[in-house]
Amino acid sequence: MIPYDKRSGKIWYNGDLVNWTDVKIHVLSHGLHYASCVFEGERVYDRAIFKLEEHTSRFFYSAKRMGFEIPYTEHAINAASKEIILTQNIVNGYVRPVAWRGSEMMAISAQQTKIHVAIATWEWGSYFDPKLKIEGIKLNISNWRRPAPNTIPWDTKASGLYMICTLSKHEAEKQGYTDSLMLDFEGNVAEATGANIFFKDKNGELHTPIPDSFLNGITRQTVIEIAKSKNIKVHERKINPIELSSFVGCFLTGTAAEITPVSSIAEYNFKVCNVIIDLNESYQSLVRKKRAA
């Protein structure tokens, strides 16, 4: 795989299209040292970004919650996102908008820092091995927990919130798993390291944790809408880990993960059942509908 700093083409950077390898930030940027940085992850299907406006709105919300203002309008960021996928000729790929505090100040306080914005895109296939997306991935249970909602801006897509996700995923991979299930601050089921989680019970109904200390994913919301359109009952509730043995199916949802079945979590096993397959087919059909450029 080509390292991301060695790729070719352009990146939208502070309002201009800049050569990929010429985009630089200073080593003393506040965003690097103090995690004053927010981002989005978006999928391109058939040359169009799925739910672009919703992602951009969350991007701006995250910045506001982190105490800074993105120096462009949402309309401008939407236009720039479309421009960069055309410039890079992306058919099916990924888009990464990111905003961060610059290097004008180096301390906890950063009131006078400049806000930088970049949008990069590249061709990208499945987040997980395609074979695993058919057979289901295996998760361990992380020792790290999602922090209490009064300790972090939990409803943002901010870089600092992913530190324990990286630690959890690395530990899972060392143990031979694909990903890790994270519990919340109360010990209930929360999410995987970068995706929301759903369970199917013996009656064909779905259960998913209430997103009160982790991100309410755009894909999560979309899948709930699809399930309800099929008259599948969805229960958003607290889920205790001891309940895992009562579920027959499990899957993850996320922009990167899309809909990915789970075959096991620690000692608990699940089937890749027809409900999950059907939801995935409906999701793939939805995201590949032709949309206006």
Order of helices and strands: EEHEEEHHEEHEHEEEEHEEEEH
Shape: globular
Assign the CATH class of the largest domain. Answer: Alpha Beta
The biggest sheet, with number of strands, parallel, antiparallel or mixed sense and barrel status, is: 9 strands, mixed
Class from helix and strand fractions: alpha+beta
Strand content: 25-35%
Percent of residues in helical segments?
Answer: 25-40%
| Overall CATH architecture of the largest domain | Alpha-Beta Barrel
Q: Please, how many helices?
A: 7
Radius of gyration: 19 Å
CATH topology of the largest domain: D-amino Acid Aminotransferase, Chain A, domain 2
User: Low-confidence parts, pLDDT < 50 over ≥5 residues?
Assistant: none
Can you tell me the CATH superfamily of the largest domain?
D-amino Acid Aminotransferase, subunit A, domain 2
N-to-C terminal Cα separation, in Å?
30 Å
- Strands, total number: 16
Mean pLDDT comes to 96
Topology at a glance:
Blueprint: E1 10-13, E2 16-19, H1 30-34, E3 37-39, E4 42-45, E5 48-49, H2 52-65, H3 74-87, E6 93-101, E7 115-123, H4 130-135, E8 137-145, H5 163-174, E9 179-183, E10 189-192, E11 196-200, E12 206-208, H6 218-229, E13 234-236, E14 249-254, E15 258-265, E16 268-269, H7 274-287
Parallel strand pairs: 8-9, 8-15, 12-13
Antiparallel strand pairs: 1-2, 1-7, 3-6, 4-5, 4-6, 6-7, 9-10, 11-12, 11-14, 14-15, 15-16
Helix pairs in contact: 2-3
